[in-house]
Amino acid sequence: MTLDLAGRGVVVTGAGRGIGAAYAKAFVAAGARVVVNDLDPATATSTADELGAVAIPGDASSEAGVAALVDAARAELGQIDVFCANAGVARGGTEAVDEKAWEVSWNVNVMAHVRAAKLLVPDWLERGGGTFVTTASAAGLLSIPGAAPYAVTKHAAVAFAEWLSMTYGAKGVRVHAVCPQGVRTDMLWSSGSAGRALMEPGAVDPDDVARDLVAAMEDGRFLVLPHPEVAEMYAHRAADPDRWLAGMRKMAAALPAVTMGTD
């Protein structure tokens, strides 16, 4: 298919910096009308001004925050054609980590997507089309040692994207799950020694992720894998889960504790 983004209304959450800012830049370059959302008003405004987009700061994870964003974006754009649920948090720790780390991870990494889809899908079904982009992680396909809230919620984000695609894909709703390994962003630098040991080798730039997303949209591919080797590892996991788990145990034993934020 030929992807025509000219004049399309696009919303990107967590777009003040990193992968989200790269998405926004790519969509603007393709002629789309873009809303830059970020919890930090200063970064949202700075990025939007730089790109010639529109800043709509706010919390894109709470029910009220998502509703406010969708309403404001529709008022600005007329309609939302592409929604990129990109905002995410990385919380480390085991099952014993504080409840707040689980709550924040669940709200930002999963429920933000559910809440956005609840508001967007009915309109897309009525119009016959729309695109939902989930920024997940290779951790959502392969897991990651030492960061239970992150691994579990990124798995859930991929699962929800799959569910959206299987339920509405034949009705014009396109869904893409972006699952990179290391990306050179603030999240990578703050992931602690273990996180960096796992993700920094072979890390790609945010612009590379955005390029691969646009290519996947052009091709109609669900999974977006900026690190192609993830596909092979994912296949090995499915083919022999016991062998895969044994390998993950060895990896976990060889790494220091992951020190992603736990607040």
From TrEMBL:
It holds the Pfam family adh_short. The keyword Ubl conjugation does not apply. CDD domains: SDR_c (cd05233). It comes from the Bacteria. The keyword Glycoprotein does not apply. Keywords: Oxidoreductase. GO terms for molecular function: oxidoreductase activity. InterPro entries: NAD(P)-bd_dom_sf, Sc_DH/Rdtase_CS, SDR_fam. Belongs to the short-chain dehydrogenases/reductases (SDR) family. This is SDR family oxidoreductase. It comes from Pedococcus bigeumensis. The lineage of its organism: Bacteria, Bacillati, Actinomycetota, Actinomycetes, Micrococcales.
